[in-house]
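FW: tagging you since you asked about this chain on Friday. Here's the raw sequence from the shared folder, copied in full. Didn't touch anything.
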Amino acid sequence: MNLYESPVLRAVTGPVIRPGGFSLTELALSRSRLAAGARVLDIGCGAAGSVNYLRQQHDLGAMGLDLSACLLAEGLRTHGNLPLVRGRAEHLPITDGSFDAVLCECVLSLSSRPQTVLEEAWRILLPGGTFILTDVYARKTGASAWSSGSPIKCCLQGAVDLATVKRRISAARFDVELWEDHSLLLKQLAAHLIWTYGSLDTFWSTIAGPDAPLAMTQCGGTDCGRPGYYLLVARKPDNR
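HL: got it, structure written out here
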């Protein structure tokens, strides 16, 4: 079951299905200083809220990619004829060195092959291109953020500790320019879910039935870690 296709979540998040909406996107763009018309790929664009926002508010040549046919169809119904393509983050149907920037917002932890996703982002970026990453992470070193036995596919299952995130980025040959903790945005989203549904257990059970809360909150003792949320801006060096 795909959490991000559920209207239960999106009744709270709106079309931008991640903590903080566009706030971290704006912060990352302010650091990236992309020129008008710069080509940007939004990996895991969902219903294309960010693609439309980048094109309308920042005059960027944004394009979106997502695996969900229903979310892409919704994006086209809502925003008109946007450049959207269906595909996997692990195998981007895009030629090398095609983009000035890549967005990967609350998507990397959904992949079973996150290193491949990073390598694909590197491949399609121009030298000097910007990689913008936001995602959940496990605050405890060596921990996972949630149970792997959940019936719901969500980013918490793939969250890893910060050291692992940075190792992966380094292995993909990116130079990190900015890393910031924004876990407050995750707390705010949880608070909004509780306000809307009464409790997180009710939220999960509304999506996947009465057994979902137990599956979503159980995990292996000391292997569990509180989830956090981060922003990372990295660059593909000009000399590689």
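FW: Residues 218-224 have pLDDT under 50 and may be disordered.
HL: agreed, and The domain at 3-137+160-182+228-235 is CATH 3.40.50.150 (Rossmann fold).
FW: great, closing this out.
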